[in-house]
Amino acid sequence: MQTTVTFDDQQLKNLMLYTHTNNESEAIYKAVQAYLQQAKQRQDLLALRGQVDIEDNWQALRELDITND
Q1: Interacting residues of 24 by C-beta distance below 8 A, sequence separation 6+
Q2: DSSP letter at 22?
Q3: Which of 17, 27, 50, 54 fits as disulfide partner to 21, beta carbons 3.0 to 4.6 Å?
């Protein structure tokens, strides 16, 4: 698919710098891939919400640390 997009010159230069590319299309492709990967990871993490039982016992653990020192 081909799309025309307008970018600020400095933004595009920074994108190329951060993606370590010399090609504008490749830089945009890499940025989109990274965004999609992060979005998928976020979705996967949110899907775990409520599935992990974590005890709220940090105060008791802190007391153990203090008494063991």
Answers
A1: 12, 16
A2: S
A3: 27
